[in-house]
Amino acid sequence: MQMLIINGQSQQVDVAPDMPLLWVLRDVLGLTGTKYGCGIAQCGVCTVHLDGQPIRSCVTPISAVAGRAITTIEAIGETVVGQAVQQAWLAHEVVQCGYCQSGQIMAATALLQRQPKPDDQAIDAAMAGNLCRCATYTRIRTAIHSVGQVEEA
């Protein structure tokens, strides 16, 4: 049995300790907002927060996250920054196919929580490895900058 803290709620799961967090979230707990992309931590689609830091859930064993705070896309809008990022994504029409967007939003939110007004270099570094096949990178950058500008007002 593993004790997890997911989106502020304690959850007990009876799974193998090497089971990836992604599959626990999706298949055991029914939190399907976190997507499967590559399975080797290269695309960023499966990004969640672990103690506020973005991680790739597809390669993170459940034993490594027991008792730590896990936040998924389902709860990111409950934070001020997460809600602002989601609103910016809509305002700047970031989403095309949408498959990568939960990972993109999780990475952007983590960046803005630690650096409220990032420059292009900081955005590129934080978002590196979050792939978008629709190539909405310019919109993503614009949306991230707009959240920083809102924080100023």
TrEMBL record:
Family matches, as CDD domains: fer2 (cd00207)
Source organism (scientific name): Pseudomonas putida (strain ATCC 47054 / DSM 6125 / CFBP 8728 / NCIMB 11950 / KT2440)
Protein keywords: 2Fe-2S, Iron, Iron-sulfur, Metal-binding, Oxidoreductase
Keyword Isomerase (UniProt): no
Gene name, Swiss-Prot/TrEMBL: iorA-I
Domain 2Fe-2S ferredoxin-type: 1-76
Name of the featured protein: Isoquinoline 1-oxidoreductase subunit alpha
KW Iron-sulfur (keyword) present: yes
Superkingdom of this protein's organism: Bacteria
Enzyme Commission number(s): 1.3.99.16
Pfam families on file: Fer2, Fer2_2
The protein's enzyme class: oxidoreductase
An example molecular function term from Gene Ontology annotations: metal ion binding
InterPro entries (alphabetical): 2Fe-2S-bd, 2Fe-2S-bd_dom_sf, 2Fe-2S_ferredoxin-like_sf, 2Fe-2S_ferredoxin-type, 2Fe2S_fd_BS, Beta-grasp_dom_sf, Diverse_Oxidoreductases
